[in-house]
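User: Quick sanity check before I run a bigger batch. Here is a single chain. Can you write out its predicted 3D structure?
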Amino acid sequence: MIRFIAHRLLALVPVLLGVPLFIMLTIDLIPGDPAALMLGEGATEEMVTALRASLDLDKPLLVRYARYVTRLLHGDLGRSIREGRRVNDEIADVWPATAQLAMAALGLAVAVGIPLGVLSARWPNSWFDNVVRVVTLFGLSMPIFWIGLIFIVVFSLWLGWLPPGGRGGLPHLVLPSVTLALPTIAMLARMTRSAMLEVLREDYIRTAHAKGVPGPRVLLRHALRNAFIPVTTVLGLQTGQLLGGAILTETVFSWPGIGRMLVRAIFARDYVLLQGGVLVLALTFVLVNLAVDLSYAYFDPRISYA
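Assistant: Done. Predicted structure follows.
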């Protein structure tokens, strides 16, 4: 197990090294001088030259990359061009809000999506199954920002039940978390239904029924646990989707998280802040998938990490 974890942590290294290199290449591909674009039309030649020097933009790509990686090894993500603050501090300020939103959406998705999939598989092709399949297809098809706008119009403007944006108490969390969770609920429900239908056809399930094991126990203890490996895989991937979807959701609901910070960095052409934010999101995504891989042994004891 320890060796497996060590190998997976080593596999993080190329990802962490590749993300900043990719962003630097993207910056280089933007037409024009990045420093002039960041400073705007009113910038003087001296200001542009000074910014280019401070950001190492006057250096070759490999030199810039090596210097960035060196700072990264010391835990330094650089300094925001617009705000002048350390990127570490900027991310530390907004990361709790994003984590709160993502965890609420993930908990909601698990609490709703998996039971819907289990019940659909329990009664396949029934009216309930048909309703769930149509609703989940709707949930997968609708863009997050559109759903968010509809929720704001209906529940905030028309009914006045919930605040339209901002971060505060539980009422502020409801609309953005539901909006963010809907695609994951749909994906989990469909994947759980498919995996459960496959497991319910196995001989050991029929044997359990023949021995007189109660139906709910067969469904939850024997079938669901064995169907959990593909569901867990999708859950890990969907966690990454939640982080990506948070960028749109936080923008629509004015949620002060890392998504809004990245949008602000894009419009301000603050690529140092953008680079740090994307790096943190990539690291989170990889760590979540590592946790998913480690959970496989719990659901299927035949899997060994030795």
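The chain is about 80% helix and 0% strand.

User: Great, the batch can go ahead then.
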